[in-house]
Amino acid sequence: MKSPGLLSIVVAAAVTLALLPGVAFAGASGQPAQSGNPSGLPTHGQKPTVAAGSQPLFGGGWYRRGGTEGLLVDPVNPTALAARKVTGAARFTPGAVTVVKNLAPSTDSGRFNLMIDGVELATKVGDAGSTGPIALLPGSHVISETAVAPAVQADYASSIACTSAGELVAAGPGTNLLVILKPRQTMNCVVTNLRRPGEVIISNRVKDGLQGRFRFTGTLDGDFDLLTGGSRTFRLPPGSYRATQEVVEGVFAVDSIECSDGGDAAGGSTTSKESALISLQSGEVVTCTFANAGSGLLPEVTGSRQLGLSSR
Prior knowledge:
five-stranded antiparallel β-sheet, disordered C terminus, SpaA_pre-album, Immunoglobulin-like, single chain
């Protein structure tokens, strides 16, 4: 996608060229730039022209990056412009925007493309990935991103915040943010993606409602006990978790374990005789129900006793 007025700062030996005022460009074939362009610059596809015999006003010439054309910024000394024969020239002072990726957690495997005005300037970046400083004409610009498969944008809570000279100048939720850049202004925009957690609900039930106490161990968030009919909810990052039931009080055995995500795209959770191996996705709610059968508790009885039942 082409974006009018997008330029790339030249970086050599880790030194960024200074943004100097008074850079002048002319319209194609010596004609003035389009009147609809408030900056006075020719649109992409129009190459600025200089009268025969004069020196170029910028170093490196016309560039191509990510399918977009632009001008490498290497401004000349403004005092020398008067000696150059430039037609339809327009003067401007660019600013610079850097877009940086912030992933939470930083180890998240998601990858993203960072864009300014719809142009991809950093591709497949993870945490701390950056476009580097990009020279832009003063005015409005859109900072945005797209997720790179297999990452899914909906799995993240996204936001963008831009600062300049240590102060917040623009911020908002989502994956697009409009910013207003001033001449010579340096702006740093951080695109944050917070992986949405999921929920795991462990519930217990006993056939006939007999009272019992059950302990669950595994990798959820420490061990915990449930009484008959009880449940506990855990809010967790995506991943695999295990829950195993043990009987603390009563005479019970696991009759069945059912988890609610059997049809999800990741294949869902699996169960064994007394355990559930839970596959939790971003934003997903998985309920695993442990059903038990047995004789329940014997109130006010200590030790063991055999009960005999007879009918008359």
